[in-house]
Amino acid sequence: MRIPLRRANTEAYGVRVRLPTSVSERNMIQLHNIEKYYEHGAQKTFILRRVTFDVREGEFLSIMGPSGSGKTTLLHILGMLDSAWSGEFYFMDQPVHKMSRKDRVELHKKYIGFVFQSYHLLDDLTVYENLEVPLSYKDVKKAERESIVGDTLDRFQIVGKKDLYPNQLSGGQQQLVGVARAIVMNPRLILADEPTGNLHSDQGREIMELFKRLNAQGTTIIQVTHSEQNAAYGHRIIKLSDGWVEEG
Ligand SMILES: Nc1ncnc2c1ncn2[C@@H]1O[C@H](COP(=O)(O)OP(=O)(O)OP(=O)(O)O)[C@@H](O)[C@H]1O
Ligand SMILES: [Mg+2]
Q1: 47, 64, 78: which to mutate for ligand 1, most atoms within 8 A of CB?
Q2: For 23-53, how does the pLDDT look when each residue is reduced to its tens digit (9 = 90+)?
Q3: Kind and range of the H or E run holding 94
């Protein structure tokens, strides 16, 4: 089933925002009653409750909330990295909730750059090789891959680290490589889980400025952050509290 395009429903859950005119009328993401729980014996612990909101193509959204409120869990669902949940999730009008795991992986590879809270670099690949992985999904030719990875290394000032393995990098450097890997293939959607949590404030600001530029060029961005300063780079904030989207 394909649902018809409709105006983004940003007011139905109490968030009143005036988005800039550069943001499209089209929804990239529609979530309806997303729920997730873990089972411990006979007991269910809910992590996400009836999460319902839309994200427009071209939006820059921040998700905030206390530790344990479900932010990472939600981002992993949005990134199609988790399939154990219920509810409806449309991504560019396609029903993710009805898709096979394989189709979700394909969608992720095609459209999404993901910055993991815990970096998730591939340990037995060098920095250079880690940056090459997303390009290999897109059948980019070797010469072009070299040029894109070279530019990205340059942009993040990590050229000198290109032949090192993740365990030879500091936490902040791994985080930078994680951000570089997420943007290297110029994805339509960037999902970033506290992307500057381990960085010096100047580096953190540079990453936020980079996101702002990418967003101005049309990339949709959803970031999880504990920082009001970082959240201010986005157009609106969704607050999670014990797995619920806070009203208001
Ligand atoms: N495998 C699991 N089994 C049981 N509970 C889990 C599991 N994984 C996560 N949780 C619980 O889900 C809740 C939400 O976790 P999540 O990582 O989404 O929080 P968060 O909002 O990202 O927190 P933080 O700001 O600390 O990163 C937590 O209470 C956590 O204990
Ligand atoms: Mg988290």
Answers
A1: 47
A2: 888 999 999 999 999 999 999 999 999 999 9
A3: strand 94-95
